[in-house]
């Protein structure tokens, strides 16, 4: 991170300099640490510039000129999501910054950092990566400006963009750059996007802009699917929905085809997604020589994100749930990538031996979803051709393996590690999978719930749940019954903490009222609630912007989806989730009168809000 460190290593220059919007924590939960240590293991000299002053290029010259390229990321979070709430209010804190201080990274950090890198050393190639770049790789709706934006590759004027799991792609880019090849000419690397002048000869185009005709399901290396151009989706929200639908249909790396989208006189070319890392490769990533701590330059300053994860272990990547509002599947893929039990137990021992403050409790064995470890398709030939957006919606696929026995064995082995007193599960549990394994629920509740367990039914009503691709509330209630039965047998007082989303596409005022009544009936008074945020590239965002349903063939004359868009209505939907808060009573009373439900206003136990403000 400093010239002094370079001097101690005997380096006169760095091969690659990584620029990140996060503080540098050398731990595998932080993407920049993974990329840096992986490139180091391949023989490259890597510098890291963390949270630089972006107002001037001088801060980007701190480590000198990189020999091969810049690697630019906004960090573990999208910079706009990190900086603004779903109602576009400014956040004043940042979990990835020392002291939790807000404002240490710019808005649209990928673009700003890339510009400053160019100003510092104009001729050095720029490689984009991380979730902010990944979710902006094509034309996308931007809620903060309420308009369509171009691919971030165009706006950042970068040479190549790496999306999804970056390990193989970034190593190949580095090796080929060392051999003298320019990154902008590396047009054949999986999991990357580049700008081309035109579609190369030998490729047959399949036009996805015709919403009256399905894109032919033709496979072959010489096929490219043409998405509606930036100009087309900018002018026509229905074509935006079509582009989103096709993009997500081409997300299975085992059968996905290249995509191309015209931007003016240039083509943004997306190669197929990266292939999942097998267990041995994923283990190797987590076994790299991490310091497992923040950089010493931060002294004793606390970095909230590090404090949260320092006693936890990530056991998997990816999610086959396909929830339309979530970016995990879009970024990490829906084929689960598993670490081995041996690698996980080694990391637990590392935490025990090397992490200051460890008292015997592992805070989490998890990932995007706690209980998808070693779950996946049992039929490889089916998986090769599958184009489902979710393995569990509308029903759990008959070829999906749901055996939780290996995970139960892992939990028991983790508890048996010397020096470990307790292993909690902090990641959310996919309850529609858990109910298929009563033995797992028994193991989870008896040994791994420290007072409460997070769960995400998201809603109670079928309309919103269909737009989310989430199971019905009866599945949640079945899991809750199992959870409470086991807790009672074990003599424990435990709680489920349910998460719900307000104002998701497909949600009406009546849906939110029904949810509020369900919460009251079940004795829930929610503290933290979430209002839908239209993140770039998600299917739910396509619904929000276009008013169409991209989960089915897009039509101009049907498939309309309602979304709460005005600030007043979005706040009303959020208020229904917190009906017990006196600040929300005036807006709720007004809405109930308008909806003809004045009978819910009063002092009784069956009323939703009181008549007065006391």
How would you describe this structure to a colleague?
Helices cover 33% and strands 15% of the residues. It is α/β, with parallel strands linked by helices. It folds into 3 domains: 3-191, Response regulator (Rossmann fold, 3-Layer(aba) Sandwich); 193-273, no CATH class; 279-600, Alpha-Beta Horseshoe (pyruvate-formate lyase- activating enzyme), CATH 3.80.30.20. The strands form 8 sheets. A 10-stranded mixed beta sheet has the order 3-1-4-5-8-9-13-12-11-10, with helices on both faces. A 3-stranded parallel beta sheet has the order 23-24-25. The longest helix has 17 residues, at 473-489. The mean pLDDT is 95.
Helix-strand layout with pairing:
Blueprint: H1 3-9, E1 16-20, E2 25-26, H2 31-41, E3 46-50, E4 69-73, H3 79-83, H4 109-120, E5 126-128, H5 130-134, E6 140-142, E7 147-149, H6 152-155, E8 160-162, H7 167-178, E9 192-196, E10 204-207, E11 223-226, H8 230-235, H9 237-249, E12 258-263, E13 266-270, H10 279-286, E14 293-294, H11 304-309, E15 312-314, E16 316-317, H12 328-332, E17 337-338, H13 341-354, E18 361-362, E19 364-366, E20 376-377, H14 380-385, E21 400-401, H15 405-415, E22 422-423, H16 431-434, H17 438-447, E23 452-458, H18 462-468, H19 473-489, E24 495-502, H20 509-521, E25 530-531, H21 539-546, H22 567-577, H23 585-594
Parallel strand pairs: 1-3, 1-4, 4-5, 5-8, 10-11, 11-12, 15-19, 18-22, 23-24, 24-25
Antiparallel strand pairs: 2-14, 6-7, 8-9, 9-13, 12-13, 16-17, 20-21
Helix pairs in contact: 2-7, 9-21, 15-17, 17-19, 20-22
